[in-house]
């Protein structure tokens, strides 16, 4: 977090924290943690310091120490910017709050915005936008769709998904919780409109006007899928498509929080959630979404459709004439 590198307000503490960071960058996380303990004796109310201490303990394999640091952090970080609750939950020391940890996600992507694309595409082999776009293109061909009147890109980030959608949509909207991400993509001129908002709140405020909705690696920060779909489906036109990705796991849990602080969703639970939401599943595939610390992250790529409106029997006379209601 950027905030983790802000001054503690004490020159001596800042200098020692700088030494601790140097030790951590050299791979000696245990020594870095020991030095940061001394720092926090000087500035015990420095929330960012407790966040760093938790990180160093975690990297050193001292999970009990990390949990203790995050408990101190949780008490100091009223807004949840550092994600202490998520970190505790990911290590079995607490329960994650329902829905998106908005303050944490916003701060996370505000930090990463300037180097986001380089880190994700060049270092982590990220290809989700291309893969989702190909699935959408294939379904457009099957359904005879030539163009979308209005497309909505949730968690638009720096426009990695939007650049694929631009030629397919008359009007393209982007929504993201991070102002820094919005600023990065605004410079590219990809979207017709951009909105800074939490996605469920933004969806709940809409009418049924989108005939394509995309969310590339967005719902992995949202927890339970059902509330997201409950907000998403009414924002779609009948017959509209939604394409999104999720990190996957094969267990019975609908979702669980990984140490990465991203949610992995159960394959069968995801299928069930789509059916309950009233969506017709068109494509449901598994693929490697990216690499994390050298390990492949397997996920789901999904394209679903809101069923088209069907004629009401009262207005569907056998002879084709109008029937009075």
Describe, in plain words, how this protein is organized in 3D.
With about 325 residues, this protein is an alpha/beta fold. It is built from 13 helices and nine strands. It has helices at about 10-25, 30-40, 45-60, 65-75, 85-90, 100-110, 115-125, 130-145, 160-165, 180-185, 200-205, 225-230, 265-275; strands at about 150-155, 170-175, 195, 210-215, 235-250, 255, 265, 280-290, 295-305. α2 (about 30-40) runs antiparallel to α3.
Q: What share of the residues lie within helices?
A: 40-55%
Distance from N terminus to C terminus (CA atoms, Å) equals: 61 Å
Q: What are the segments in which pLDDT stays under 50 over at least 5 consecutive residues?
A: 1-5, 311-325
Q: What summary fits the major beta sheet?
A: 9 strands, mixed
Total count of helical runs of at least 4 residues: 13
Q: Which sequence of SSEs, written as H and E, runs from N to C?
A: HHHHHHHHEHEHEHEHEEEHEE
The count of DSSP E runs of length 2 or more, i.e. the number of strands, is 9
Radius of gyration: 23 Å
Strand content: 15-25%
Q: Name the overall outline.
A: elongated
Secondary-structure content class? alpha/beta
Give the rounded overall mean pLDDT: 89
Fold topology:
Blueprint: H1 11-25, H2 29-42, H3 47-59, H4 63-76, H5 84-90, H6 102-112, H7 116-123, H8 128-143, E1 148-154, H9 162-165, E2 169-176, H10 179-186, E3 193-196, H11 199-204, E4 210-215, H12 225-232, E5 236-249, E6 255-257, E7 263-266, H13 267-276, E8 280-292, E9 295-305
Parallel strand pairs: 1-2, 1-4, 2-3, 4-5, 5-7
Antiparallel strand pairs: 5-9, 6-7, 8-9
Helix pairs in contact: 1-2, 2-3, 3-4, 4-5
């Amino acid at each position: 977090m950027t905030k983790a590198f802000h001054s503690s307000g004490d020159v001596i503490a800042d200098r020692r924290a700088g030494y601790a960071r140097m030790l951590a960058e050299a791979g000696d996380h245990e020594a870095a943690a020991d030095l940061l303990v001394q720092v926090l004796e000087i500035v015990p109310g420095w929330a960012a310091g407790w966040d760093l201490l938790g990180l160093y303990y975690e990297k050193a394999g001292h999970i009990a120490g990390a949990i203790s640091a995050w408990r101190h952090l949780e008490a100091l970080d009223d807004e949840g910017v550092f994600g202490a609750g998520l970190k505790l939950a990911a290590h079995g020391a607490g329960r994650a709050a329902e829905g998106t940890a908005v303050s944490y996600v916003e701060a996370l992507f505000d930090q990463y915005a300037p180097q986001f694309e380089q880190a994700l595409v060049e270092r982590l082999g990220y290809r989700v936008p291309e893969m989702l776009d190909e699935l959408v293109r294939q379904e457009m061909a099957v359904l005879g769709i030539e163009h979308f009147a209005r497309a909505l890109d949730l968690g638009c980030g720096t426009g990695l998904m939007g650049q694929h959608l631009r030629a397919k949509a008359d009007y393209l909207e982007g929504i993201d919780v991070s102002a820094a991400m919005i600023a990065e993509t605004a410079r590219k001129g990809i979207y017709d409109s951009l909105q800074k908002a939490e996605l469920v709140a933004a969806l709940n405020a809409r009418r049924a006007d989108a005939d394509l909705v995309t969310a590339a690696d967005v719902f992995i920060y949202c927890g339970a899928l059902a509330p997201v779909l409950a907000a998403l489906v009414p924002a779609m036109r009948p017959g509209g498509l939604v394409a999104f990705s999720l990190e996957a796991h094969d267990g019975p849990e609908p979702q669980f929080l990984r140490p990465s602080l991203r949610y992995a969703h159960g394959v069968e639970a995801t299928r069930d959630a789509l059916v309950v939401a009233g969506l017709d599943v068109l494509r449901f595939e598994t693929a490697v979404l990216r690499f994390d610390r050298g390990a492949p992250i397997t996920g789901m790529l999904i394209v679903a459709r809101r069923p088209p409106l069907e004629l009401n029997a009262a207005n569907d006379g056998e002879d084709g004439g109008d029937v009075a209601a």
